[in-house]
Amino acid sequence: MNPSTKVSFRKGTKEKIAILRQLERKVLWLSTWMIHNANHLRVKIDGLKVGGHQASSASLVSIMTLLYFDILRPADRVAVKPHASPVFHSIQYLLGIQGIGQLENFRGYRGAQSYPSRTKDLDDVDFSTGSVGLGAAITAFASLIQDYVRLKPFGKTDTPEGRMISLVGDAELDEGNVYEALYECWKHRLRNTWWIIDFNRQSLDAVVSDRLFGQIDQLFRMMGWRVLTLKYGRLLEEAFTKPGGTALREWIDACPNSLYSALVFQGGEAWRAKLEDDFNSGHKVRQLIGSYSDDELHRTMTNLAGHDIGVLHNTFHQLQDDIPTCVIAYTIKGHGLPFAGHKDNHSGLMNSEQMEKFRVQNRIRPGCEWEPFEGIDLPQEKISLFLKNVPFQQQGSRRYSDIKLEVPSIPVPKGKEILSTQEGFGRILANLARSKSELVERIVTTSPDVTVSTNLGGWINRRGVFSRNPIPSSKQESEVQSFQKWEQKPSGQHFELGIAENNLFLMLAAMGLSHELFSKRLIPVATIYDPFIYRGLDALNYACYQDARFILAATPSGISLAPEGGAHQSMGTPLVGMAQDGLAAFEPSYVDELATIMEWSFEYIQRDGSGKNTSEWLRDSHGGSVYLRLSTRPIHQLTRNLSPEQHTAIIEGGYWVFEPETGAELALIYSGAVVQEVTEAFELIREDLPGAGLLAVTSSDRLNAGWQAAKRSRHHGGPRTVSLVEKLLEPLAENASLVTIIDGHPATLSWLGGVRGHCVESLGVEHFGQSGSIDDLYRHYGLDTQTIINACASAYLNAFGYHDR
Ligand SMILES: Cc1ncc(C[n+]2csc(CCOP(=O)(O)OP(=O)(O)O)c2C)c(N)n1
Ligand SMILES: [Mg+2]
After folding, report:
1. Is 203 touching ligand 1 by the criterion CB < 6 Å?
2. Do β-strands 583-586 and 77-80 pair in parallel, antiparallel, or remain unpaired?
3. What pLDDT score does 6 carry?
């Protein structure tokens, strides 16, 4: 389909376009004023600039005006380019969804956010944006999830499908994750997705390369997208039909981006001078431009399609099918503002004089700057009525919720005495696959090409791989003996992804918001190799920031994967788990601990602040996502029945495996797969120090969070809460020593020394990369039994003043 840029409208449409043009001007005014107000008129407290992006916002005003006031339907979901946040909030304000106080307080504490935020803004943000590229890609994954949900019995509905729309800055296309997403989503036959590229040919630092345009076009087409390029507005199209028009068009097409930008900034006189330079007197172009005043010439030469409501209207109304569509809309950064086209305008702010001129130009009376109808040339009732009937608005709230699904009890897998936590995880899921409950129906697993090696095979053999259309295996395929029976069907409950970890986290973001976007809750469970969390870290952070809910099982982890490869050893991930907001991190040693944690996780990821919770002062009532750091190291499992108190302690972060005697002078504290060496060392140490304690930390993250929260509560005069870790360490002598051990960075557990001022020796991994057996590596990196004993001796001696503390 080629969009027709010839614009002729019926009477009703003409009226609508006239109203949209008024709103376009209003939105430009409000977004520009909002930034000006925040920077120049609000009381400055700390002398910092507030910032905001007037030019970047202006670039998208026409497109967003058309979309929000005419094209969008309630089921559509939009990711708005981060720097167009003021445009978004202005539109929401005119639609009555955003308060004036929020606009006045743009970028202020609890005001409208710098970048659209699902969690911090009060208006109707569908997807947060900020880290460029991620907002572009998430809509594609959301579209896949929309299909997934609607094909399941629990998601069947007659309501229309939504279109997942990204408003993308052109420089965002430099981000690799965009292409990873395009490729992945092509594999899954993406539909109902529009990416609208704000093609202003400027990034933050510079004007972009002229050669870029053709590449973008081809890239999208290669991935099965329809590409619509909207270059010229109707004034230019009209000019092209006149004598000299073809030559003018060729001149513009050949004009380097940097020259075009400079002329946009310089205005009518400069356009004329340059064109007169390039065309001899007597040339038809000379006659053509001679028919325009300087102002008219400037208006015509800057009349790009991305600022022409008529052309945009025509284009978007033609998009009625579900083919993924990339619209490359030519725009001007700063369009309609004094620094339009200036190459350094990204963070440019209009000064007070320019703003005053702009106010007069918009017919805004002083003191009426926030008035929604001020300066509008049409009767107020007409605009009010139009706004009331905007299709996007008709449904009321577009943020859904879904019921909480009851969690079945998760028994500890039986039948094997020696088991790794990774294998235990696989068995727990395989057992769930055999069971029946609504929660299990809602589980959707996903993995970036490490499905088999992270033990999801058993689950998939029973539940199948998701595909929009059933894909039967050929006779030959069926005859090949394999443990993996991957049936591909619409009822499948596993989303198989290619290797790119960014895609995994964007997929989790989309899956984990399904209850709010599509009104049906999913229970996403993903697996990844622990070290590759780093590869997708920004996307993980992005998912958590949006409050998406999921369980991430990362395995193998640490150096305990041993011969499998030094390069894959992860040591910093426990710290990632502790530091990541919205993610509760666990590192169990035994599979019974893991079963306890998983049962709790299935419920925790569904919390929303409304239910009762066990400990008011953690983030427990709100809930979040869960990170399980698992190991491939086989561990001799304990035969024990955990008490309810132990269950609680495992969730809160730790429990004494051997309680210390009151006044004990030493405690060994460990997490995860090192339990074997620690237990051996502990048995030997107890011969000399029978009162010593052995503490299992199942979640340094939650143990620490509980401690921080209790301190905060006490500092702020709240309840005199004592945290679990403070209680746990209470029996120890004041001068006792702690020896902490983890197959990860030692800082993960060293903070425990600060709880009661104990001396601490922390063992862990600070360097990595050597392959070998577990024994070799534990010796090499100092996690073996002997090193633990030595550390205990040294800590003990330290505590009694034999060494310097
Ligand atoms: C991942 C990431 N890197 C860098 C930035 C800083 N940054 C913000 S906007 C921008 C350039 C944006 O250019 P473009 O996408 O073309 O938007 P425009 O302002 O031109 O509309 C950069 C580098 C960011 N927000 N996110
Ligand atoms: Mg740009």
Report:
1. yes
2. unpaired
3. 55
**Higher-confidence position of 751 and 203:** 751
Pick left, alpha or beta for residue 449 (phi over 0 → left; psi -120 to 50 → alpha; otherwise beta). left
What would the pLDDT profile of 139-186 be if each residue is shown by its tens digit? Answer: 999 999 999 999 999 999 988 999 999 999 999 999 999 999 999 999
User: 426-464: b or e for each residue (b if 16 or more CB lie within 10 Å)?
Assistant: bbbbbbbbeeeeebbbbbbbbbbebbbbbbbbbbbebbb
Q: Write out the H or E segment, with its range, that includes residue 79.
A: strand 77-80
Q: Secondary structure of 577-609 in the HEC alphabet?
A: HHHCCCEEEECCCCHHHHHHHHHHHHHHCCCCC
* Residue nearest atom 17 of ligand 1, based on CA coordinates: 169
Q: Which of 53, 83, 199 to mutate to test the pocket of ligand 1 (most atoms within 8 A of CB)?
A: 83
Ligand 2: distance of its center to the CA of 338 in Å? 17
Q: DSSP 3-state assignment of 154?
A: helix
Nearest ligand 1 atom to the CA of 198 is 21
Q: Whose CA is nearest to atom 9 of ligand 1?
A: 204
The mean-pLDDT minimum among 471-485, 487-501, 664-678 falls in 471-485
Ligand 1 lined by 172 (C-beta under 6 Å):
yes
Token digits for 411? Answer: 């028994």
Residues 6 or more apart in contact with residue 400 via CB below 8 angstroms: 515, 516, 517, 518, 519
Residue that has been written with the tokens 């019921």 in this structure: 403
* Cβ of residue 135 lying under 6 Å from some atom of ligand 1: no
Give burial (CB, 10 Å; 0-12/13-18/19+) of 53: buried
Burial grade of 779 (CB within 10 A; 0-12, 13-18, 19 or more): middle
Q: Give yes or no for residue 132 CB within 6 A of ligand 1.
A: yes
3-state secondary structure of 708: helix
Question: Which bound ligand lies closest to the C-alpha atom of 61?
Answer: 1
Share of the chain above pLDDT 90, in %: 86
341 lines ligand 1 (CB under 6 A): no
**Ranges 212-216, 643-647, 800-804, most confident:** 643-647
Beta-strand runs (E) in 200-343: 226-230, 325-330
How does residue 561 score in pLDDT terms, banded at 50, 70 and 90?
Answer: confident
The per-residue pLDDT for 593 is 98
Q: How, if at all, do strands 488-489 and 465-466 pair?
A: parallel
Beta-strand relationship, 488-489 and 418-419: unpaired
Do 577 and 701 form a contact (C-beta atoms < 8 A)? yes
User: What three-state secondary structure class fits 550?
Assistant: coil
C-alpha dihedral over 759, 763, 765, 770, to 10 degrees? 150
In the sheet that holds 443-448, the strands lie side by side as 494-497, 443-448, 523-528, 551-554, 625-629, 583-586
Q: Among 64, 203, 344, which residue has the most ligand 1 atoms within 8 Å of its CB, making it the best to mutate? A: 203
Model pLDDT for residues 737-759, shown as the tens digit of each residue: 999 999 999 999 999 999 999 99
Is residue 56 within 6 Å of ligand 1 at its C-beta? yes
Closest ligand 1 atom to the C-alpha of 169?
15
What separation in Å is there between the alpha carbon of 166 and the centre of ligand 1?
15
DSSP conformational letter for 767: S
| Ligand nearest to the CA of residue 172, numbered in listed order | 1
How far CA 435 is from CA of 215, 237, 459, 492, in Å, comes to 50, 64, 11, 15
For atom 13 of ligand 1, which residue has the closest CA? 203
Counting from 1 in the atom list of ligand 1, the atom nearest the Cα of 208 is 16
Q: How far is 663 from 144, CA to CA, in rounded Å?
A: 59
Q: Is the pLDDT of residue 805 over 50?
A: no
Structure tokens at 101: 């106080």
Q: Is 141 helix (H, G, I), strand (E, B) or coil?
A: helix
